[in-house]
Amino acid sequence: MSKWQGAAGSWSVKLLVAAAAIAFGALLGWGVLTGRNEAATEAGRERAIKVPIRVSSENGEPLITLDTETQRRSGIETAALPSATHQEQVRGYGMVLDVARLTELSNNYASAKAQVQTAQAKLAMSKPAYERAQRLFSEHQVVSEAQLQATVAAFGSDQASMAVAEAQVRTLTATAYQEWGSVLGKSLIDESPMITRLIERQDFLLQITLSPGVILAAPPSTASIATGKSARAAITFVSPATRID
Questions:
Q1: Which residue from 238, 109, 108, 106 is spatially nearest to 184, judged by alpha carbons?
Q2: Alpha carbon distance 131, 229 (integer Å)
């Protein structure tokens, strides 16, 4: 009985040793596989975060190159800039012009126009009177020669007054264009609101002088003047100056 128990115990020990060996082998195998998987995963991570070289040099200047996917992830977009006109800036010096002469010229022109209208009204009366007296004298002798001569004199005087008034208007028109240029001259003749605002000093007329050598190919579309340390006011181009003071 003890002999069989001894044999049975020996087999139990052998089975336990074999089981332990198998378990150890399984653990060892699992550990090796796990280590390999972790190494492979780490290597994959390293490969995933490996950043390609994007900085290079071209003509001595640093150049950064980004692929399409990187640009997409970073929200980088490229587009061609639309063409635009560059507005050149130049500096000049200005002074406020005295418009007393402009006011005087405007008043004289208005007076000359009134004289033309007066002469026209007189001529509109004296001309028919002269024509009627001439017809009555030549056909029927209804009026005397003295009466005819009086109508002739009145008609001739009104014609002369009309000619003088019209000549004065033409002279003042030419003076306005010569002294103030085509824009202001026409504005004065037309009695436009621009002249009225200048005469009433609601607006002011500035003469801007550019620096020597500065030439503008075209009138400026926009301009401004400095009225203080930081204050600026917009001004509008009217016309080239007719004289230089």
A1: 238
A2: 73
Distance between terminal CA atoms of the chain? 145
Residue 195 tokens read as: 């002249």
Tokens representing 125 are: 């009366």
- Give dist(CA 41, CA 44) in Å, integer: 5
Amino acid letter for position 136: L
> What are the structure tokens assigned to 146, written together?
């003295």
Both structure tokens of 190: 């037309």
Task: Please give the structure tokens belonging to residue 17.
Answer: 């040793």
- Where do the domains of the chain lie? 2-74, 99-200
| Number of neighbours of residue 10 by Cβ within 10 angstroms | 10
Q: How confident is residue 52, by pLDDT bands cut at 50, 70 and 90?
A: low
HSE (side-chain half, CA atoms, 13 Å) at 122: 19
Distance from C-alpha of 17 to C-alpha of 38, rounded to nearest angstrom: 31
Instruction: Note the pTM of the prediction, 2 decimals.
Output: 0.59
